[in-house]
Design a protein that fits this description.
This protein is an alpha+beta fold and 345 residues long. The protein has helices spanning 3-16, 24-32, 55-62, 73-96, 130-137, 144-160, 177-183, 191-204, 232-248, 272-275, 280-284, 289-311, 318-329, 334-344, and strands at residues 45-47, 99-102, 105-108, 115-119, 122-126, 165-175, 208-215, 221-227, 259-262, 267-270. It folds into 3 domains: 1-37; 73-239, Lambda Exonuclease, Chain A (Alpha-Beta Complex); 257-344, no CATH class. It is built from 14 helices and 10 strands.
């Protein structure tokens, strides 16, 4: 039995000695943490969701190294929240009559490189019966907001695509408002998500896909297109080449930088590949993510204040010059960053 469930039952046994009430929140929280613990075993294939992540983490997992920092309770709950949003999207697709496949395992392999395998969320398209879809949508007893959204989607498709919809991969990602707000202005997707979606296009030989972002905090949605043979081909294959090289090597890939420069966002940020590393203690010596954040969060904020002054053309103070020296010492090309800022302006 899962240890989380055992703990929940022990709490319930203790509470019944005092009264006959039960805590619904305890039952809810305990059930979200009730997941089967999968043993870590060595493997010779990549998962699509690993592309773009820290090579050292991926290689350690492929070699069967037991994590020192497995997902905590909050991470598990966020994972389940993602499953709930996928389920809601599935209901809309089914009732709209455009769900063709779901949760299909797909593999692709370049010659002499590691095989990549992954499970797509949805394959959608075809020519639906919209009237039937509208009627069946109301039978689901979903909140009004989802009924309205489903009906609006069907109305849009019926008006603009009378001959039916092209087949398309849909990759659903539920994120916080912080992440959504950082992606929405430029209608961009993270590199990891683009490569994951691209894998399904490559494996199915389908021309178009979309990464569908849903904000968990306010239900906003944004779709970012991914095209087969487009610019993501180079990133996708390059990531596989890098991981193949390190997997076949007797050495480990280098550690990740704790702070990274995001050219698209024009800012420094904590490296999530480090913060969420399953080997955070083993590789970087931090007890948990909070300890890492406490150390490097202020560093990224301080550097970004200096970047803001550079962007505004303000004179550099002595403190600013010290921060620039810190960036260079950490391996960042300040002159290149300045050129990127000017180009963006």
């Amino acid at each position: 039995m899962n240890h989380n469930l055992e703990s929940l039952e022990a709490q319930q046994d203790h509470s019944t000695e005092q009264d006959d009430t039960f805590g619904f929140a305890d039952v809810w929280n305990g059930s979200l943490l009730e997941r089967e613990d999968r043993p870590v075993v060595a493997r010779n294939r990549l998962w699509a969701s690993e592309l773009g992540k820290a090579p050292i983490d991926v290689v350690l997992k492929m070699r069967g190294e037991v994590p020192t920092n497995p997902p905590n309770a909050r991470s598990l709950r966020k994972f389940e929240a993602g499953n709930i949003w996928e389920w809601i999207v599935k209901l809309i697709l089914v009732r709209a009559g455009i769900l063709l496949e779901e949760q299909t395992w797909l593999a692709h392999q370049y010659p002499d490189l590691l095989e990549v395998s992954g499970k797509l969320d949805f394959l959608a398209g075809g020519k639906p019966d919209y009237q039937k879809g509208r009627e069946s949508l109301k039978e689901l007893m979903l909140p009004d907001v989802f009924i309205r959204a489903g009906e609006n989607i069907m109305n849009f498709f019926e008006k603009n695509y009378p001959n039916g919809l092209e087949t398309k991969v849909l990759e659903i990602k539920s994120v916080s408002s912080f992440i959504f707000d950082s992606l929405e202005p430029n209608k961009r997707a993270t590199k990891i998500h683009r490569m994951q979606c691209y894998h399904y296009l490559k494996a199915k030989n389908i021309q178009r896909g979309e990464i569908v972002y849903i904000c968990r905090d306010d239900c906003r949605m944004m779709a970012v297109p991914v095209i087969l043979g487009g610019p993501d081909e180079e990133s996708y294959k390059g990531a596989i080449e890098t991981l193949t090289k390190w997997y076949n090597s007797k050495e480990l890939p280098p550690l990740e930088k704790p702070v990274v420069w995001d050219e698209d966002m024009q800012k420094f940020s904590k490296n999530f590949n480090v913060a969420y590393s399953m080997y955070l203690t083993k590789l970087y010596g931090f007890k948990d993510q909070a300890e890492f954040d406490d150390k490097f969060g202020p560093v990224a904020e301080r550097w970004n204040r200096v970047i803001g002054r550079l962007r505004d053309g303000k004179e550099m103070t002595e403190n600013n010059q010290e921060a620039l020296a810190e960036m260079e010492e950490a391996g960042f090309d300040i002159e290149l960053i300045k050129k990127q800022i000017i180009k963006t302006k």
